[in-house]
Design goal:
two-stranded antiparallel ribbon, Arc Repressor Mutant, subunit A, mainly alpha, 5% strand
Length: 262
C-alpha cells in the first residue's frame, strides 16, 4: 500500500518535500471533513490547500523555493501576463491550468466568508463538493506530472493516501472493528472497506472483523458485488475494495456512521 512517505519519495525532488508533506496533509484533511459531512471547514479551509499548492508550482516554475510566499504572488509569477518571467514547469499549459484552479479554490474560500464571516452564508454539500473536486484534480495533476513510476498508478495512489482514521473503526491486534451497533452487515462491510482503502480486505479478514454469522457476511458481500449494486469488487488477489459507487454511498448515506454514536 502506498503511504505519504512513498508519495514524497516518488516526487521529491523536484518538488520540495516539506511543501509536499503539507499538501498531502491538507488534502487528507479536506477529504476527511468532506466524507464526514463537515461542510463548512471543508469549504472554507480549501484556502490552506491552495496556499501550499501555489508555492509548489511557483517553486518548480521559478526555481526559487519560498515556503511563505503568498498565493497571489506565486500565481502572478506563473501566469506572467506580460510574458517577462522564465518558466521551468515541465508542461506550461498544465501549469496555467493548475494556477487557474488554485486561484478559484482560494477566491471561493475568501469570497464565501472564510476571512470575514458572512451572516447570509451557510456552507452546504454543493459548495463542499465543488471545492473537494478541484482539490482532488490539483493533487492528481501534480502526481501525473511528477510521479516517477507508472502514470497509470496515479488513481490508486490518490485513493490510498486518502485513507484516514475513521472514528467508528477500532484497530486492535491487527483486527478492524466497527464500533457502531446500529449498522447492517452491508454497512459494516462498506465502512471497513472504506477504511482499508486500496489494500482492501479478503473474506477471512471481514469475517474476523464482523462479529456476525458467516452466512450473513457472505450474503452481504454477494449483494454489494451484484450487478444491481456494484458497490464492492473483488480483485484478482482475493481482496475486496470499494468501487466509486461504494465510495459515493459512503459520502451520501453513511457519513454519520463513520463517527462514534453519542
Amino acid at each position: 500500500m502506498v503511504d505519504k512517505e512513498d508519495v514524497i519519495a516518488q516526487i521529491c525532488p523536484p518538488l520540495d518535500a516539506e511543501l509536499v508533506e503539507g499538501l498531502i496533509g491538507e488534502f487528507i484533511s479536506q477529504e476527511r471533513r468532506y466524507v464526514l459531512g463537515d461542510w463548512e471547514p471543508s469549504t472554507l479551509d480549501g484556502g490552506q490547500f491552495a496556499e501550499v499548492a501555489s508555492r509548489i508550482i511557483y517553486h518548480v516554475d521559478s526555481v526559487n523555493l519560498n515556503r511563505r510566499k503568498g498565493v497571489n504572488s506565486c500565481l502572478r509569477y506563473v501566469e506572467d501576463e506580460n510574458n517577462s518571467n522564465p518558466h521551468s514547469f515541465p508542461q506550461r499549459r498544465t501549469c496555467l491550468h493548475l494556477s487557474r484552479v488554485i486561484r478559484m479554490i482560494y477566491k471561493f474560500r475568501s469570497q464565501r466568508g472564510a476571512i470575514h464571516i458572512d451572516p447570509e452564508y451557510t456552507a452546504n454539500e454543493l459548495d463542499s463538493t465543488l471545492i473537494i473536486s478541484n482539490v482532488r484534480w490539483v493533487m492528481a495533476e501534480l502526481l501525473r506530472v511528477f510521479w516517477r513510476g507508472d502514470k497509470r498508478e496515479v488513481g490508486g495512489i490518490i485513493r490510498d493516501i486518502l485513507r484516514f482514521d475513521i472514528p467508528a473503526v477500532l484497530s486492535m491486534d491487527d483486527r478492524q472493528i466497527v464500533m457502531r451497533t446500529d449498522c447492517t452487515v452491508g454497512e459494516e462491510i462498506i465502512i471497513l472497506l472504506h477504511n482499508a482503502g486500496e489494500t482492501g480486505m479478503n473474506r477471512e479478514e471481514l469475517g474476523i472483523a464482523i462479529p456476525k454469522a458467516p452466512s450473513t457476511i457472505t450474503n452481504g458481500l454477494a449483494r454489494l458485488t451484484s450487478s444491481e449494486r456494484r458497490e464492492v469488487v473483488r480483485k484478482d488477489n482475493g481482496k475486496f475494495i470499494l468501487t466509486p459507487l461504494g465510495a459515493k454511498r459512503v459520502r451520501e448515506e453513511l457519513s454519520e456512521k463513520l463517527v462514534l454514536g453519542t
